[in-house]
Structure formats: structure tokens, C-alpha cells
Amino acid sequence: MILEIVPLYSYNFYSTLLIIKNIFDLDEKHEVDNVSKTPIGDEEGNIVEADKIKDENFLNTEYNNNERGNNYTKSYNYNYINNKNNFYVDKKNENIYILINCGWDDNFCLDDIKNVIKVCEYVDIVLITNHGLNYIGCLPIIYQEFLKLNRKVPIICHEYTKSYSKYILLSYIKCINNCEFFKTYNENKYINLINDLYQNMLELEYKEYYTYKKNIVYEKEYKKKNCIFILPIYFVNNGDNIGSSGIIIKLFNYKILYSINTNIIDYSFIEKSNIINQSNIFTFIGNFMYTNKNYNKMVEIRNIINIVNRTINNLGCVFFPVDIDSIFLDLLFHINALMELNSQRYAILFLCPYAENLVRLLCASMSYMNSYIKNNFHKNRVNLFKIKNLICLKDYNDFKKYEDGYYILFSFPSNINNDTSKRILSSFLKNKKNVLILTKKNKTDNICSDICNNYYKNKKKENKENFNFSYTKNKKITLKIIF
């Protein structure tokens, strides 16, 4: 099985197509016959043979909170494609197509809208995460296309998103004048279309789930078999704004989490989710504003890389408190290349409770990509998968074995406002060769802002004051800070 991610848009709004394909290309342990016999509620119960379904209410007890231990087996591969031409139309009955969001901005880019219209022929379900025009602007066009094709496709969102987005579309009458697809509409026709759309839209509360089922016909041993693929879908509050939702899709023993929260400063919405807590294996898909054509940013990156280079030549270690954003992506690409040229073996460490999914997180769908990134993303993605020395850490116990070695440590989040990061920092600062690099200003009160204040306060003083925090006292430090 392969999960493919296709960002349909080119600019600063969001629409992502998830394609679950090769559903039955599983190893012997996940053969359909075996999967169909798996008791309801176990992690491999996504596929059920159609002739074995006797109780229509069997889903009521399915996927609630029961998982079978921690003996997970990989059941799908992860892939990113930037191919907006071939969506495997010839195998549309064998694949699952999930469209997440469909919006536009004031540019009304027709090419992007046409990409979304192309998938209407075979998209199975539409999920909306936010009420802004950037997420729902194309929804009337999508719905109109479904009507033309005589297709009843579930459109699902949170109740707040439904209420607010309807208000936005009804008040955004300029869509009629600015969008080619609506120029033939008068105001009444447009309003009637919106009302009809929202009467047919489904609401989903947080912690509730919607179970999508698709009847799939496939050939096995030269015989056609009829199977129903079951896909539970949950909405969780990701804290962006009212009604803003993260989407969790349960796929075999995996949880796929989609969020449009571009800041990724706070992962608490993941920790609070009972669905995620059922498993420590999940894939994160986000929308990162990634561009490396900004001159000022490239100058900053160059300065950071120069400091890292001098530090490792001096056999020191580097500590990067970061947020998962474009700066971090650039840093990882460049530092990985620097490590390949360095004679001393350095480990690249990443401290995050969900670090085992770092590569998947980094290869998430990027809906804002300039031409350079489009042309070079596959090469960069290969480089990510080839990071030989990348080690993911969950806590201080994982870090202890590297404490006396050579490493570049990325710690999430950038405010390092947790005990594990502070404890590592207390050990890290004992070596004068080590360098702490802060890539952004933290305006709120936390250890990073305290470090910055201490640094600037003592910058021109001969007798520098000591910096204190919970895991060390009266410790003099020399900081190199880059914003």
C-alpha cells in the first residue's frame, strides 16, 4: 500500500489530495484473507470482505479505544509526488482519493482551480479544516462539479467551520465577478448554490468519527473479489482558531494526522488526542511555507552555517532550539550537506516526542512552492532520506549516550520550555567549545528570552553576570545568537 500526497495548488492557499493506492499489495501478513478475519477493533481491520458483513452496526464498537499492544507492523509506504497530471484514473476504483480543503486567494488562479476540478471525477471524500476563503473558496465549484457528474461525495467539516465558512461564502459575492467559473451566475443563483451545498454538508464534532467505506473490486488469483475498505476519520482541535481542525485518518496500525497549522509551535493538540495516544506511530502532513529564494534569509542561513562549520572544526557541538518551519528545513538541508564533507563523524540529533516520524514530517505536503523548490524538491527529498547520521530522541535518557560525543542537536520547540531540553542544556553549556544558536526571537517569557536578555545585558560588560536556570546555578556562559 502507498500513501501519496499531491499539493494541488502552487501559491499561498491550501488544497491537498491524498491517494491511498495499491491497497492489496501487502505482504503475507497483511493478505486480504487474513485482514478480513481480523477481529473488529484490531489495527489491521481496515479491509473486510463484502460477503462477510452481516451486522450493519458493527462499526459502533469499532476503532473506539482498543489497540493490540505495541507490536506494530509496517503496512504502507509514504510518498510525495508533485504530479498534477496523472491521478491513476484507470485505477480509480481500486484507490481511495481524499481531498483536503479547496480554496483560493484574491488572485483567483485558474490553473490551480482546474487542478481541483480534475479530481472531482474520482475524489471519494472532501474534508474541510478551516473556514477561511483560502480553504473553502473553491467549494461551490467542487459541489457544482459533483452535481454535473451526478456524484454524491461526502463533504465533512466541524460545525463551527460549517457555520463560519457559509457566512464567508455568502458575503464574498465578488467571487461572481472575479472568478471565471461564476461569471454566468447572478447573485440569486450563487446564493441558492451555497445554500444547497451547506444543506448537504456533514458536521463532525471533535473526538467523534466518520467511517468512510468504499467498495473495491480487485483481482486475486485470477478471480475478482469484492471488498469494503473501511477508513475511520476523526477531527481534533489544533488550536489555530475557532473550528480549526486537525484530521486523523486511521490506516491499519498507523494514524495519519493532517494539520494546516503552519506555525507548528505547539504540539499539545496531538498530545490531547485520544486517537493519537492509541499508537506512537503516525504520519504528520502539514503545509509548510517553504522558499529559499529570499535573499535576506539565505544570508542568515549562510551565517549560521559558517558558525556551525567553525564550531565543528573546533570539535564543539551545536544546540539548535527550533520550530518546524522553513528555516529548520533549510538548516537541515545545508547541515546535512556540511556533515557529508566533514572528516569528523557528527550525529544529527532531533529531540521531539514524535521524532520517529521526523522524515515523514519534513516530507509533508508543501502547498507554497516556488519554481526552484518545484524543480529540486525530489532531489532534496532524496537527500533527507539519505541522512545517515540522523538520530531521533524522545527524552534525556536517549540523549545520554551521545552526551560526550560530537553532535548537532535540534530541539523542538524553539522556546525549549521543557525539562528535558533544560537538562540537556545544563550539560551542553559545560563545554566552552559548544555553541547555542537561536534562530528566532521569543517574545514570551521563557528560557530562550531570558538567555537573550542576559546576553544583550552583558554584551559590553567586562564582568559578565552569571545566568541561572533550573538545572544549573551560577554558570557562566558565552552565547552566540543569530536571529
Report on the structure:
There is one protein chain. This protein is α/β, with parallel strands linked by helices and 483 residues long. The protein has two domains: 3-25 and 78-286, Ribonuclease Z/Hydroxyacylglutathione hydrolase-like (Metallo-beta-lactamase, Chain A, 4-Layer Sandwich); 296-459, Rossmann fold. Helix content is 31%, strand content 22%. The protein has 16 helices and 20 strands. It has a seven-stranded mixed sheet with strand order 4-1-2-5-6-7-8. It comes from Plasmodium vinckei vinckei. One of its GO terms (biological process) is mRNA 3'-end processing by stem-loop binding and cleavage. Belongs to the metallo-beta-lactamase superfamily. RNA-metabolizing metallo-beta-lactamase-like family. CPSF2/YSH1 subfamily.
Structure summary:
One of its GO terms (cellular component) is mRNA cleavage and polyadenylation specificity factor complex. 31% of the residues lie in helices and 22% in strands. With 483 residues, it is an alpha/beta fold.
